[in-house]
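User: For a benchmark we're assembling, each entry needs the component sequences followed by a predicted structure for the full assembly. Here are entry 17's components. Please fill in the structure.
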Amino acid sequence: MSLLHERMMEEVRVELRRLASRRRFLTGSATLAAGSALALAVNGVPLLPGLQVARAQTTFADDIEVLNYALTLEHLEATFYRQGLEQFTDADFGESPFGRPISERLTAIRDHEVAHVEALTATINDLGGDPVAEADYDFGYTDVATFLQTAQALENTGVSAYDGAGQFISDPALLTTAGSIVAVEARHAAYLNLLNGALPFPAPFETPLTPDEVLAIAGPFIVSATAESTPAA
Amino acid sequence: MQRQTHEEILGRVFQARDQQASRRGLLRGAVSAGGAATLALAPMVSAVNAQDGASDEDILSVLNYALTLENLENAFYRDGLASFTVEAFTALGFQTSVVDYLAQIGSDELAHVTTLTQVISDLGGTPVAEGQYDFGDAFTDAPTFLATAMALENTGVAAYTGAAQYLIDNDDLLTAALTIHGVEARHAAYLNILNEEDPFPEAFDAPMTPDEVVEIATPFIVSADVVTPAGAAVATPVA
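Assistant: Structure for entry 17:
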């Protein structure tokens, strides 16, 4: 394994551990919220009928950390589609009942995820941050059917992740950018739901997920983040 | 090391969602075969406190801006679908499920109207009322109905994308708006497909300013109060 590869994996590992440890540190602690603009101590209650609020179990120090959280997920998605489209042929995917061949739609989705990775990476660099790198993943699919089911899960989780993290963004322009990305993820999710025989819009409101909840879902895909037991610095 | 089969992964996704919904007491076991969860409307729970940086009036104007658009969409599907037979759509080559999905979209818009109205009232504001609209041939010609629906949904997505920034100082309302925003994007993708358009034509959904949105909506409005975000003059959406 190359040194570069090792370093990339370590970056993701550290990012995930940092998020996880911050969550443990802050859970149930009211005092730590004192110096923060975020209402960490507020108990999670349903705000309004049908509306859900992802309460802060994990928080972010600044916009760079939120963007790196998003980038972690976008890397995962981009790699997922890149690998799947390399592994399966157009014929494997077959024709689509929704206008265009499935492989063509998936290629467009892959290109979107790559564009998200590039935009987030550039933005984090511009802000003086250190963009998290692509890692090693194992998505566990065995055929086109399971690939498409995993795609559906990833896209819907992606929407929930952005919806849960939007509140942590402090720069209005970055919030708008995040909004322009999550809308595309929701479009992807609707299409993949259709492909898998599910309702494209299963509820009148999306379900925001906290970073902890998202990492519990996405973390197992990241081989490099779960392969070692030695705590990071 | 932790190789997950797709079943385990999907199981975790749905388990996480169910747990979250269950915690909040919103999910009433209404899970369909397709894995779709229906959220039951719980009784009104709590008030919202506007945070620093935006006045209550500003917040209310943003919510009424959203309600202005949701009222339009709700009326469109309610009155439009009532004016068509199922055969009007199956004659175009669509399966009957398309009509069910369109009704589901209408139901979503009604839920948005109901919720936004309640939020605004709860904050002490006056919810903007439904107006009188004219959708032209959309209620007599099914293809025009679908094309108009597509335009409304994609405009709605752009409106929320552009307006989210005005809620940046209120975490709860911002998150709530985002959960509506995503659903509008799902509607838009589906209607794009019905209209033989790309469901996700761009890598980034373009935001629209309130002025741009109002310009698109105005031709449909015979008479209605149109509210736009009070803070719109000082913050411009970025592409």
